Automatic annotation (TrEMBL):
Domain of life: Bacteria
Organism listed in the record: Bradyrhizobium huanghuaihaiense
Cited InterPro entries: CHP03980_redox-disulphide, DUF1858, ScdA-like_N_sf
Domain DUF1858 residues, every copy: 6-55
Protein name: Hybrid cluster-associated redox disulfide protein
């Protein structure tokens, strides 16, 4: 699995910009948020009431083959 729950949100979006659409689809307002540099996927999902496993699966599904 290329992404983990302890990965920083900002790191994911910077290294894999194609994942931004997944953040937006889950209504996570992480794009441009200054806290994204400190929040892990776990933190963001907890704060926004998102199922972490579903979110991680969607992130992994968007990785080009």
């Amino acid at each position: 699995m290329p992404f983990r729950s302890d990965d920083l949100v900002d790191d994911i979006m910077r290294t894999a910009p194609h994942t931004i659409r997944v953040f937006l689809a889950f209504r996570l307002a992480c794009v441009g948020c200054p806290i994204a540099t400190f929040h892990t996927v776990e933190d963001a999902c907890r704060e926004h009431g998102i199922d972490r496993d579903k979110f991680l699966a969607a992130l992994c599904d968007c990785v080009p083959a």
